[in-house]
Amino acid sequence: MCGFAMAVEHGVLQALTPESRAHFARFVRDYERIRACEGRGGNDAGFYLDLPYRDASGRNTGQWRMRARSYDYLVRHLLAGLEPRHGGRILDLGAGNGWMSYRLALAGFRPCAVDLLGNASDGLGAARHYRARLPGLFPRVQAELARLPFADGQFDAAVFNASFHYAEDAEATLGEALRCVRAGGLVVISDTPWYAREESGRRMVAERQASFRQRYGSAGDTLASLDYLTDARLQRLADALSLRWDVHRPWYGLRWAARPLVARLRGRREPSRFRLYAARKG
Length: 282
Fold this sequence. Notes:
The protein has 9 helices and 9 strands. The chain is of the alpha/beta class. The protein has one domain: 3-Layer(aba) Sandwich (Rossmann fold), CATH 3.40.50. It has a 9-stranded mixed β-sheet. The longest helix is centred in the N-terminal third of the chain and has 20 residues, at 18-37. It is globular, with a radius of gyration of 18 Å. It starts with 6 loop residues before the first strand and ends with a strand.
């Protein structure tokens, strides 16, 4: 980032280079349009302040319920060893509207929210609503996850918040998160879909693209992103970056647990499953 001047707009540090901004322009435009059609964002502060435990819009309730259980598991089981009053510096990667940074700040941690989107409904600009309940708003940075504007070892943990599957270069993106955490620090991939078979993931992507074309007039495939995880993909990342993954399986409810069996009985492809993948920096 040497020689690159960063500005602050509406409280958000602008850390996208002109080249990165141009590269992601079409993706951001399509993504924001599709997200708006899906009912992301709310009309008042209450929508954001209730997340992830209540979706006031009623349009994505099931997804938010899952996000809430992943978040609770993260805090209770993975971040529990960090003492918020003596550190607890958490990098929230793919923060969106900043709901997780808001919850972490309430819990006494020191989060920093990073996302490509800066808009006021579904991006970092929406975090203004959290000022009502926080003594000071957490830092917000608009940046590319594979090019983070932070010093080495600056954070105690980095969490990919339902965002790792958007990575174009998974190894570079994970490597950047590792660079930014201290020795012994934690990197967590949360809420990225996992499949037992590569073919299932490819079929999911094809089905999603067909659905998006029909509903939104765009396949949503502007980026050559990772899209999903498999054990083989996770192992390649572990080998390349000298990591050991600890796999955590939060309980998302009986209906969610029964999805693989129901899919087999109905002759459908395996459904996505969600876990938390945690690794320590050596």
